[in-house]
Recover the amino acids of this structure.
């Protein structure tokens, strides 16, 4: 994998497969607003500053240093907030795709959900009675009827239960060390 002069990330062909070129969009130390293209997968780097990074379609969004806002589009998104107080905006119910979130810092980062997509939720910080923390692998898994966001700390999976009771996978969280200690306070409804 390498970058060419047009800042495109080029992936070498593997076993004769035709692997597409992924565009790379980069910010700088300023406060940037960066946007992906709706027709191609991209790697978008904010680097420094307080950036707003808007994914196009199935993008890899990297915040870097600063207080960044990473906005996912429909499709698979890979969020890496970086340092600072960052916000991940999830705009897809994950019925077809689920997102990856890398190194989410529960002490300072937030996830934001639109009430027009995630229906039946009051705006503001998620109510504590709508968040469930458990561990499926240990048998400690018994979400209640009113729980809407379900976090399995052992598997580091985040699911959402719709108003109809259907459960969809929103994201898998990946951490370098321990699973993040998510709570209802990490979720904000707009």
């Amino acid at each position: 994998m390498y970058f060419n002069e047009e800042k495109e990330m080029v992936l070498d062909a593997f076993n004769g497969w035709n692997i597409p070129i992924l565009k790379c969009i980069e910010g700088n130390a300023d406060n940037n607003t960066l946007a992906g293209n709706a027709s191609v997968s991209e790697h978008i780097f904010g680097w420094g500053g307080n950036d707003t990074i808007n994914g196009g379609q199935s993008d890899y969004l990297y915040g870097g240093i600063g207080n960044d806002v990473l906005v996912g589009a429909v499709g698979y998104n890979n969020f890496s907030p970086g340092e600072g107080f960052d916000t991940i905006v999830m705009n897809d119910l994950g019925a077809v795709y689920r997102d990856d979130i890398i190194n989410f810092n529960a002490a300072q980062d937030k996830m934001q959900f639109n009430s027009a997509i995630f229906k039946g939720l009051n705006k503001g910080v998620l109510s504590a009675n709508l968040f469930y923390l458990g561990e499926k692998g240990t048998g400690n898994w018994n979400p209640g009827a009113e729980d809407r966001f379900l976090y399995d700390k052992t598997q580091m999976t985040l699911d959402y239960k719709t108003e109809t009771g259907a459960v969809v996978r929103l994201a898998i969280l990946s951490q370098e060390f321990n699973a993040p200690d998510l709570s209802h306070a990490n979720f904000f409804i707009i």
Notes: Residues 2-128+178-189 form one domain. Confidence is low (pLDDT under 50) at residues 1-19.
